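Aggregate trends can hide what the representation actually does to any particular protein. This step matters because it turns folding into a mapping between discrete strings. For completeness, the protein is quoted in full, as a sequence line and a line of structure tokens:
=====
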Amino acid sequence: MITIDNRTMTFEKFTEQPGKYRNLDKMSVQEILQHINEEDKTVPLAVEKAIPQLEKLVSVVSNKMMDGGRLFYIGAGTSGRLGILDASEIPPTYGMPYGLVIGIIAGGDEAIQKSVESAEDSITQGWIDLEEHMICDKDIVIGIAASGTTPYVIAALEESRKRGIVTGCITCNPGSPLGDAADYPVEVVVGSEFVTGSTRMKSGTAQKLVLNMISTTAMIQIGRVEDNKMVNMQLSNDKLVDRGTKMLMDILSLQDYDKAKNLLLKYGSVKKAAEAAK
């Protein structure tokens, strides 16, 4: 039973059901690892079933970004951290500007590393946090909550919809209040956790897989990948410079490593160097 904005809703959480393995404290290390692995193997199959929902959401994300909009992830706890992780990897991987994909977590930056008590229970702070980024109807907001019942996230999506902002969500319970608040819900039903209620496990893995799929597909769709190469990645360390040099050698059929490297560093990205050399 949960209450949001003076409304009471009854909802069964599959993510809170008792795990099928008992007496974990009596298991050997090998048994624990084996059983966790067995449970984890079921996650990609659950994600596969959600691909039709995911396709609809990703298509909207791609269209919004091509039209100059931004992608917001909003969540609490593990869900919020996973959104921030995905958002933070877009600029270095695809050379996109910071602020195009934004991760927001209940409790702010402090909550990235440690729990901020009761932050997820606020029904007003989520929208306040989105407003700080001057969110508008060109953007899209994806709420992330394994349970599908986090007030901070649900209320943020509801307020977004009122203002004409497209919403999506990632949850691990079907028919959840969060799903009802989203225009494009993605429900990955992974079932009970190995440790009962510990949604950082299978649910968290499912969320990470889905986030990978959303951002990677969107970046491909808006032209940040050519063939299978990250041609717009930032050259922020020696490893990436070496990777970019080898990409350029392959694209231009160059045998001279130093020539390719100098060309890469001159133009700042594989894409620009390749275009200049052709």
Notes: The chain has twelve helices and seven strands. The first strand starts at residue 2 and ends at 4. The radius of gyration is 21 Å. The mean pLDDT is 93.
